[in-house]
Amino acid sequence: MREKLKHLTYSMEKANPSHASILLIIGGYLMYLAWMILKNFREGKTTMSAATSYVSAGVMALMGLLVLCYSLYVWKKIYQKNMEDHDSTPEENLPAETPSDGDAE
Questions:
Q1: How many domains does the chain have?
Q2: Which residues contact 70 (CB under 8 A, 6 or more apart)?
Q3: In a domain, 93, yes or no
Q4: Is 78 contained in some domain?
Q5: Among residues of the chain, what percentage have pLDDT more than 90?
Q6: What pTM did the predictor assign?
Q7: Number of Cβ atoms within 10 Å of the Cβ of 66
């Protein structure tokens, strides 16, 4: 069963900032859509019933919030991975310090 679902899992090694940015935009757009559904219902610009408006706006807002939280989780994992890579850099691979013009006498 796990082999069948293996292609559905997401590895954080594939995560990059552009992926997290796109998720952030998608989550924000879903929240915007939820707001517009409620706004149009309150102003009477829609033919949806009250129950349909509230349920659809609630679902959109919930999905948007989940996507936003996931995008922040991806950003956090990317940041942690970058910090670990930076901390694990051997000293001999760092560029040698060269004296500046003020130090050379």
A1: 1
A2: 23, 27
A3: no
A4: yes
A5: 48
A6: 0.68
A7: 12
